[in-house]
Design goal:
Two copies of one chain form a homodimer. By secondary structure, chain A is α+β, with helices and mostly antiparallel strands. Chain A folds into two domains: 191 residues, FAD/NAD(P)-binding domain; 173 residues, D-Amino Acid Oxidase, Chain A, domain 2, CATH 3.30.9.10. Helix content of chain A is 26%, strand content 26%. Chain A has eleven helices and 20 strands. The model of chain A has no long low-confidence stretch (mean pLDDT 97). Chains A and B meet through helix 10 of A and helix 10 of B.
Chain lengths: 428, 428
């Protein structure tokens, strides 16, 4: 392949959004995305819940998500089908959670996050099947540390997109501008070459001046490029470690389960939260256990995770297990929504979050001619548009990126050297 | 085994120094060190060059090393044989290196690092076999980017210790105070247990409240402890990842080669740098290639590494290769010291550096009842005493540690949340 101006590794939501914004700013540049899967968004993008929110305590996370969501709302209004439904997020919170999060909730509202609060009585009216009050005599519930629901905290600028459709939107627009995506092709590592080659097999030698000049594919072939951009999510360390670049992320597995039953019919039409009569993305007051409804399929998706102790582990093909649903998620669901009683998972899958364990904001930085955009920490879809614009600004050498809606963003704040972000305090 | 007050993982130099300082502060506590090797200091400690220096640009690194070296000098004066020889460090620098490092050298002197400068003519007088002037007609040297030596920058408070003897000093004192070291016993991970156990095999479940209560050995046995301290260097991520603790380090291989030959006799007695007539630890102006003399064995050790591009890779048992010496180190050595011409490595080994890729200062922090002391980035021996004192202060809950010589150190500066260190600019 002829030398590219830019090679992007990964056609997940980050990769295609980056490709789109770079080509929009640099028409005519030769940009190629390499993707190991047969089509776009088939890695961790495909495994996500497809939910979006602007409800973050970190001002940076808020700005990344808020502007990305604005862009998604805009293209949705323009008639692009990205499966967008602004159904809201509903955190069902116990008294102790409200107390713990009091300052964070106030800060987020101060920063511009639009929240609504539902009193317990309202919740009961809207969702009569919701068990807001944990029976003090329920020994199981006590053992599980379940608490009664006191309030609903509702994020307004939140909802769902179809992750696949959104990824395809960017990929299509990227291709329309002349961008190339090569599928079924895995990048092994950046291509590290001496500036002055000797033709020895053991090059580069330690006294040689080296530079990154492209990528080496798993097949052994090499492709030269003026700039390499790594948007490979959990695969990024495997690609970058071999050339001694630390992208600072750890992978953690998240499992998703699909429930199908006539019993769940009441969740398909819920009046009182939004104009669509859709159940918001709903989070229960334990172990971040959440459900979302897929009204087209008539199913409910459920997930959740421990707050501490989940292993950091990269797996090429992580698997969900029925036991994980049965012992972990189901036990909590059935206590708060007894309609789940007796239901088994009809489908399941697992993906990885590429965690920034330090502050749970993304990393976007350049080193040795490689731009790295990783660490979405499970909220990549809702920050992808901003990540694309910031990466394009970094590529262009601009100090400031302009996010959707003409909101300015200092590029260096997401880097390593001059990083300046608040650790995220509002984590599912 | 009965419940311990403290379990330390790793009897390398960090582990034994931590054990020593904790028991000194807390006589009578039950402290056990677990070590996978048959004796202490057999991991990466044994693979090091055993050199020490206080020559660091980061004020933190300087303080850690300077006080640790003071302690080693003190015990050496008291008659403990730790193989200490204050022979100095000699950086042979080219004009361009001196220019590049001008500010850093001035800053270090300002901070209290004692440096002496040797003009080229003095170097020639002391080491007539040193080729200070690269022949412009030498095509090989040009291709290798070798530059003439302009000056010697000499670190006074620098030299060698016997890494094994120093580790044994701490281990012996630790045991005298009642500390226990259990060898040939590998820790798999911290023991993560629910506060309220159900007796299920799949525990902990995601809705359980969990805590770290000790360690799980590779054998499957568990040992309870009030506090777990991880001082396992490159092995730390393998131990901590399984419970979702990010210790922020990457491993990189470093290879050491031993040369033996009558040709090297002039290096065994070098008059003009120190009272011992010992060749200082000598660094050449390319690829951090350095030599040290082992006068007891009559041999020369040599190593070096690329400044960028070395893979981050954990290996249980990394190996040195003759090719690495022949193509990388030897080529530079013979140009600056032709006496190496034709010499092959008589012995070799490899170890790992546990790199802090962000700022090359150590990490010492506590999370979820686990204290982690890692990231020595190749200078663990020369910072171990300070690391031991800081870890002991963290264990005791003190904000300030007292390093050797009554120098105060704010413990939180080496942590993740309130980290406050300068990125190290003076790297070999």
């Amino acid at each position: 392949m002829e030398k590219q101006d830019i090679v992007i590794v990964g056609a997940g939501i980050f990769g295609v959004a980056i490709g789109y914004h770079i080509l929009k700013e640099n028409p005519g540049k030769k940009v190629t995305i390499f993707e190991k899967f047969p089509t776009c968004g088939q890695g961790n993008t495909a495994k996500s819940a497809g939910a979006f929110r602007n409800v973050f305590s970190s001002k940076t996370n808020f700005l990344l998500a808020d502007t990305s969501v604005d862009f998604y709302l805009d293209i949705h209004r323009q008639g692009h089908d990205i499966g967008l439904e602004q159904a809201g997020y509903l955190w069902l919170m116990s008294h102790s959670q409200l107390e713990r999060n009091k300052d964070v909730l106030a800060k987020m509202q101060h920063n511009g996050v639009k929240l609504k609060f539902y009193e317990k009585e309202e919740l009961k009216k809207i969702m009569p099947y919701l068990n807001t009050d944990i029976d003090p005599a329920d020994e199981e519930a006590r053992m599980m540390g379940l608490e009664s629901i006191e309030k609903g905290v509702f994020g307004v600028k939140c909802g769902f997109v179809d992750a696949d459709k959104l990824t395809r939107f960017y990929e299509t627009e990227f291709k329309k501008m002349g961008g190339q995506v090569i599928y079924n092709t895995e990048v092994a590592m950046p291509l590290l070459e001496p500036r002055e080659k000797l033709g020895l097999e053991c090059e580069p030698l330690i006294w040689q001046d080296v530079e990154i000049t492209g990528v080496r594919l798993k097949s052994g072939k090499t492709v030269n490029a003026d700039k390499v951009i790594i948007a490979a999510n959990s695969w990024a360390p495997n690609i970058l470690d071999p050339v001694g670049i630390d992208c600072m992320i750890k992978s953690v597995k998240r499992q998703m389960f699909v429930l199908r039953s006539q019993k769940l019919a009441p969740l398909m039409k819920v009046e009182g939260f939004n104009q669509f009569n859709a159940l918001p993305f709903t989070i229960f007051p334990k172990a971040a256990i959440y459900i979302r409804v897929d009204r087209i399929e008539g199913s409910v998706w459920a997930s959740g995770h421990e707050h501490f102790g989940a292993p950091y582990l990269f797996e090429e093909d992580p698997k969900a297990t029925d036991e994980y649903y049965d012992y972990n998620i189901y036990q909590v669901l059935r206590k708060y929504m007894p309609m789940f009683d007796g239901l088994k998972a009809a489908n399941k899958w697992a993906g990885l979050y590429d965690m920034n364990t330090l502050d749970a904001n993304p990393y976007i930085f350049e080193t040795h001619n490689v731009i790295i955009a990783v660490g979405s920490s499970g909220s990549g879809i809702m920050k992808a548009d901003a990540a694309g614009r910031i990466t394009a600004a970094l590529y262009a050498g601009r100090k400031e990126a302009e996010l959707y809606g003409n909101r300015k963003f200092e590029v260096a704040t997401l880097g390593l050297k001059h990083r300046n972000v608040e650790p995220e305090k509002f984590i599912l």
